[in-house]
Amino acid sequence: xxxxxxxxxxxxxxxxxxxxxxxxxxxxxxxxxxxxxxxxxxxxxxxxxxxxxxxxxxxxxxxxxxxxxxxxxxxxxxxxxxxxxxxxxxxxxxxxxxxxxxxxxxxxxxxxxxxxxxxxxxxxxxxxxxxxxxxxxxxxxxxxxxxxxxxxxxxxxxxxxxxxxxxxxxxxxxxxxxxxxxxxxxxxxxxxxxxxxxxxxxxxxxxxxxxxxxxxxxxxxxxxxxxxxxxxxxxxxxxxxxxxxxxxxxxxxxxxxxxxxxx
Length: 263
Fold this sequence. Notes:
Shape: elongated
Oligomer: single chain
Number of strands: 11
CATH class of the largest domain: Alpha Beta
Distance between the termini: 13 Å
CATH topology of the largest domain: Trna Endonuclease, Chain: A, domain 1
Strand content: 15-25%
Order of helices and strands: HEEEHHHHEEHEEEEEHEH
Helix content: 40-55%
Number of helices: 8
Radius of gyration: 30 Å
Largest sheet: 4 strands, mixed
């Protein structure tokens, strides 16, 4: 809902600009309308000033500026009508949703009633809160390699993963570490981080590949990314990938800027 509201507000701003520009274009516009007559390759223009006159007065070639001004007037009038109609509808909708968003009803009824109700619609924030508390089986692969502790107290496999986890935590981006992901092809991955995107109410996965200098490791990484793709998870859409290797150092400042843009 949040991302939808942001998009609608941007649309409203674009429409307000359009309305203002269309009104400017109509200032000083000539009276009447333009009639265009086409006969084969020949085009003639007529100026209609009396609504009862369906033909209008022929506009000579030397008065081509009048033709353009009448054309601009017709375009601006039509654009203004449609833009204002859409803008008014969007402003009414935004007012209703911002004042009485149905996503917020469950949180507004109080804890006691919440215990007796199965929610139909939840806000992204509430969904993230429930999602973050779920229990899941940890990755059985080499649990002894989890030697580094995050600010939340969980154990991860590398110093880079500590940085990622701490950034997510500091920026209030809900995440779970190595949560199992059942693939459509029947397999199972344990993404380094599964992130709940509050604004879009969706899951995003983050894989960090830290030994890209190793050819065998690198080939394995690309196969993994390709398998994600075959299961409907795409880099740049719902999969974040980061890399490290000799001469390739993580730029956490740029990473944080990316997180701000995404979430």
